[in-house]
Amino acid sequence: MSSSHIKVKAIVTSPTNSSRQGYKFKYEEGRRYHADEDVSYILPNDDDEADRVHQQHWILKYALQCNYHAPVTKMLEDGIVVLDSGCGPATWTFEMGETYPRSAFHGVDASCVFPEDIKPANVELVIGNIAKHIPYPDNTFDYIHQRLLFLGLTHDDWENTLKELLRILKPGGYLELVEPDLQELHNVGPLLSKLQGTLSDILISKGMPTKVHDQFEELLDKAGFENYVMKMTPLKLNHTNKAGDLLWEDYSHGCINIRSVLAKSNTDWESPEVFAAFLEASGNEAKKYKTCINYYACYAQKPLE
Ligand SMILES: C[S@@+](CC[C@H](N)C(=O)[O-])C[C@H]1O[C@@H](n2cnc3c(N)ncnc32)[C@H](O)[C@@H]1O
């Protein structure tokens, strides 16, 4: 998908949508990044990363055996209004739109990495910084889904985002948050410990939580949500079955896409070849140790009053 082919439409329900924001890019080592100083996200936003995130959706669906955890199936079948917050290339949004044709789906992302021209009729996509202002009126959505923002939001951003999500959720509506624990892998060996330690140091230096799922209950409570439920699923990394192989494919691709950031803390990794060899050894280590990544999904509701 080429950025020059992306058109962003204004949508009636979002009068404050500032679509031009998505067109500010910067380039480093041949990779394209957003250039919005208010957005802390550290991964690139080019085609390779969009393809990775697209594929990651199918891998997670296969490994988790579901697309969502909140008890919203009947509501989705009957017809509700849903937001995918930080939707990326909008693979979840599109698939859900096709699965539940009576519901209306909206996606918001800081970068215009999503396709706009070809999409299900019940899907609308908009550019916005979820930590500043989500361009929808109060009490718009019945269900909000947000997945994999742990490399994008500082402590303050999480607080602001949850306030915004509460504002645009209808009373009684559900918010679902899904994040992996990449700081503490289960059955981890020394190589992956080193990698995760470096990533954690970077997150700390940027004011981002390293284990945001540990703070979900407190953050949601502080923002004003209630009826909090948490579920954890350990996902196999490079062992046992196809899901394990696929998760490693995604994990290692994500590491390659974040290599230049990791190299700021570990200069050995300035060389893509050195890093590739390190990753290969890490993959073998994960297979031997039977390493798992714990995925956390929680949901909570906006109070009725
Ligand atoms: C790893 S992708 C996940 C995409 C999607 N949620 C999924 O699970 O397939 C994270 C996305 O969050 C977006 N993002 C990061 N910080 C953001 C912010 N402050 N406001 C809106 N989107 C943001 C990025 O642009 C990126 O597309």
From TrEMBL:
Alphabetized InterPro entries for the sequence: Methyltransf_25, SAM-dependent_MTases_sf
SUPFAM superfamilies: S-adenosyl-L-methionine-dependent methyltransferases (SSF53335)
Pfam family, one: Methyltransf_25
Transmembrane segment boundaries: none
Highest taxon above the source species: Eukaryota
GO molecular function: methyltransferase activity
Domain Methyltransferase: 82-173
UniProt name for this protein: Methyltransferase domain-containing protein
Organism: Thamnidium elegans
